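Hypothesis: this fold can be encoded by more than one sequence.
Test: take the structure tokens below, design a sequence, compare later.
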């Protein structure tokens, strides 16, 4: 990290980027849930397409599954690193402004706390106290002006591991149903289990209504898979010999 971008005001915490001023969601759990749903839906799309087009199913599914594993891990890790680099750049820019345009930052801070209802001597005391220490001022401006929130930043490797674990457990469910249920509908049963389980996990950590999350995820999956089914049936005559 660039020397100027180091958030030295807290040794136990890092500034975590957030689009809204909300509690930071554990990224590895969200990646677990999202990756489970993505893998499940794509798996079933390929299964339906290949089955309806009378092409070899299982070999292609194995190739697709392994390829998607690798792709998803890289995408999650890259996204996390990009987010971290963006965070470092924001901290660096804000610290430069504090060092070189201190009066401007002080005026902005005064406007922020004036909007919160502070005035007169109390407002002056708050601004003077916050601007007396660069690290405290940096923390305050990042939180109040730029919408960043304090919290633990989940390491990109840990986020990628969450995605891997979600896909791995989804594939385990597929494997179990493959050997225990008839091939005609075994993957759809496991697909439903995966989507419902991932929806429950996502709703718990995102603090959303669980039933709504499950219904919407299942509905989206059914619509997408239904479209896939009818498309493959429509183009199947063109592939008949």
């Amino acid at each position: 990290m660039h020397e100027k971008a180091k958030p030295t005001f807290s040794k136990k915490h890092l500034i975590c980027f957030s689009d809204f001023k909300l509690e930071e969601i554990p990224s590895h759990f969200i990646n677990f849930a999202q990756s489970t749903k993505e893998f499940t839906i794509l798996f079933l799309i390929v299964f339906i397409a290949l089955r309806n087009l009378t092409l070899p199913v299982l070999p292609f599914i194995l190739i697709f599954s392994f390829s998607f594993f690798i792709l998803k891990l890289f995408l999650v890790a890259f996204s996390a690193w990009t987010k971290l680099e963006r965070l470092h750049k924001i901290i660096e820019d804000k610290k430069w402004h504090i060092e070189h345009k201190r009066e401007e930052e002080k005026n902005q801070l005064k406007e922020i706390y004036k909007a919160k209802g502070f005035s007169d001597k109390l407002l002056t005391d708050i601004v003077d106290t916050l601007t007396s220490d660069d690290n405290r001022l940096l923390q305050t401006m990042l939180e109040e002006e730029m919408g960043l929130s304090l919290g633990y930043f989940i390491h990109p490797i840990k986020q990628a591991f969450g995605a891997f674990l979600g896909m791995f457990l989804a594939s385990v469910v597929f494997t179990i149903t493959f050997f225990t249920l008839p091939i005609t509908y075994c993957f759809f049963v496991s697909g439903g289990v995966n989507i419902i389980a991932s929806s429950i996990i996502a709703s718990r950590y995102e603090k959303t209504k669980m039933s709504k999350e499950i219904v919407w995820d299942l509905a989206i999956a059914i619509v997408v898979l239904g479209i896939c089914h009818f498309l493959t049936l429509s183009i199947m005559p063109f592939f008949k010999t």
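Residues 66 and 95 are 44 Å apart (CA to CA). Helices lie at 27-52, 58-100, 102-115, 120-131, 134-144, 156-180, 186-206, 210-239.
Hypothesis status: open.
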